[in-house]
Amino acid sequence: MHKAHKRHIAPRLLLAAFAALLLLPVVMTALYSFFSPEEIRAFMETRGSYNASAFMEIKLAPDMFSLSQYYNILIEDMTILRYFVNSAMYAAAILLLQALVVPMTAYALSRFRFRGRDAIFFVILLLMLLPFQVTMVPNVLTLRALGLIDTVWAIILPMAIAPFYIFLLRQYMIGLPAEMFEAAQIDGAGTGRCFLYVALPVCRPVLGAAAALSFADCWNLVEQPLTYLTTRKELYPLSVVFNQLTQKSTGVEFAGAALYMLPALLIYLFFQSDILEGVQLTELK
Amino acid sequence: MFVKKKSVWLFLLPGLLLLMVFYVVPLVGGVRYSLTDGSYKNVFVGMANYRSLWKNAMFLTGLRNTMELSLICAPLLWVLSFLLASALMAVKPYGGFARSAVLLPYLAPSSAMLLAWLVLFDFGGPVNRLCVALGFSRVMWLESGALRLPIVLMFLWKNLGFCTIIFLSALQTIPHPLYEYATLEGAGFLRQAVTITLPLVTPSAFLVFVLAWINAFKIFKEVYFIAGAYPDESVYTLQNYMNNMFEKLNYQDVTAAAYSFAVIVMAIFAVLFFAQRRAVRDLS
Asked: Which residues in chain B are closer than 8 Å to A226, comparing Cβ atoms?
């Protein structure tokens, strides 16, 4: 017992140190969000100086703990909050559509045998492999033909079909035992009931994982808004705006960043075990 | 497996519709743009767009940078995530904190991390303090060529966790008795690694490499966050080129660039795929 406790001390310490390093930017952002805006403004103004004899201060604690950054963005000046709401709107709409489209497609591709199945799956794999620089072109052509450029639909609709999550779900569903579905069929369930009452409940971990990972994608949108919303900057999600916010410090940017991290962290805590359990990918087949 | 059920088309309908409308049809239809001159008569010009594209300095810079950055990122990501997964496996049942911390960045928006990065890599920032403390001179991380380091680090920070858990799930599927049996038979650590771990992990390793590379091709977010919309030439990626051409409504160059890049990507993955098949066959 005692011996087991002492094993692997060195790799465990190393892992813990590495983990702390990974968490550093998150902790830093959270910490700096409790500084007063004046202090942050003064601190951020010391950036970009090429004086080789001076360093920026390393601030480990605020002069005075303050919530005024949060007060500022939540109540006084709603600019950041407005972009935050945009982000939430995109994430909600995309996730809702994906919830309708992705599980059904994965179910059809894994539990049915029909002509053309392999061809459809091949196309989905192909789209999964192609980077955004390539897939944006067909998207743009359709969006332009439908007159949707510079509207929110330009971002939402092409993302409703997510090849990677279809792949993830299909790999999971294909491994489900056939007896489960046969038993349901003997009880008189059709393909629809099998989907709703057998496949979906059993796939809970992978559905949770896909939802959480997809949320992370939607919460970090950059390419799509930049290319599809060139003239409607008021529709940008907050993720695109951060780097304009930092051009000139307003003193409240850290609270904005911390606020933006919060939903992602909550989702992570809630779905962590699903992700570890649900992402059981072993090969590309 | 349901056979001969017409209801399958009901399940497929929404997905197939979106797939057709937003991807397949325009992907095929878009070839027309890349072969015409874009004037109001839309004259067929054959491969002329492609020829001029492949002489365009900005396109070539973007392509080269995208390739170089992805060739830096993907192998690093692959090796690091394998080491990390092995270490996490070795210290089981401990290491829960490290596992959580490694996966967290994948969920956290890197856009919000930008501020921390700008402070850390400032000329007077903590990273340069470390450099000086280690006896090196300071580096201007946020200017010109050195920009690549913060960008690559941000990419690794974000993507490391996901690759690690794929490796982790692969390592967990290897039944433990296999190792015990091998130990009884007198196989040493190295022998076990080569004859048990390696063949069983190869398919996942291939998958992780492909996923890592796909993600690395997309490297643009990090460039945009750290270097802005009009970055230094050393980090000007293909996506920057596409955005510029798209703003100019130059559909000829956009489509030609997209199809050229698609062919390159597909060729790379085809080679990788056949290499993996051979590797699996040789090892088993």
From this structure: 224, 229, 243
